[in-house]
Design a protein that fits this description.
- This protein has 166 residues and is mostly helical.
- The chain contains eight helices and no strands.
- It has one domain.
- It is globular.
Length: 166
């Protein structure tokens, strides 16, 4: 668009919010890849398996899905979150007898589409909605937490039984 002179150079460099979103996503994807390459994911999985030993496998699965879902607050995109946390959750589950790995993977994957409401940076379009000013910043966080809880409960109470019956 700049080459065809649809937008000016000043327009490109002047859109601070767009550049901020771009940098957040780039940093989070780089962080996720770095965690994987450095061995942190394997180390964390080995540490997290210990406290869950002896726990009922269904409770362990519920805790792992909750960890996966709510840890999205720490990530600026679903992609970076899935790259960094899903391998950890699945590695932890793999070390636990009785945990249904494929069911856990499906629950985590189903939650990816639901967790996009929890914060102003949860998905690619969330920063645009948050920056529009239509909903205040604090209200955005509160609504995100409320709808996140509703969606999480629907995942655990509706999707889990449905997937388990298949």
């Amino acid at each position: 668009m700049w080459l065809l002179r649809v937008v000016s150079w000043d327009d490109l460099v002047g859109d601070r919010e767009a550049w901020s979103v771009f940098l957040y996503f780039a940093m989070m994807l780089t962080l996720a890849e770095g965690l994987n390459r450095s061995g942190f994911i394997g180390w964390f999985a080995s540490r997290a398996t210990g406290p869950l030993q002896g726990v009922d496998p269904r409770l362990a699965m519920a805790l792992l899905v909750a960890l996966f879902f709510w840890s999205h607050y720490l990530f600026a995109s679903i992609t970076s979150h899935a790259l960094a946390v899903l391998p950890v959750v699945l590695a932890v589950a793999q070390g636990m007898p009785g945990v249904d790995g494929p069911l856990l993977a499906l629950l985590c994957i189903h939650s990816l589409g639901l967790m996009g409401v929890i914060s102003p940076y949860a998905t690619g379009c969330a920063p645009i909605y948050a920056a529009s000013g239509y909903i205040g910043r604090m209200q955005f966080w509160l609504l995100g937490a409320c709808f996140g809880m509703v969606y999480f409960l629907a995942l655990m109470g509706g999707v889990w039984p449905w997937l388990a019956s298949r």
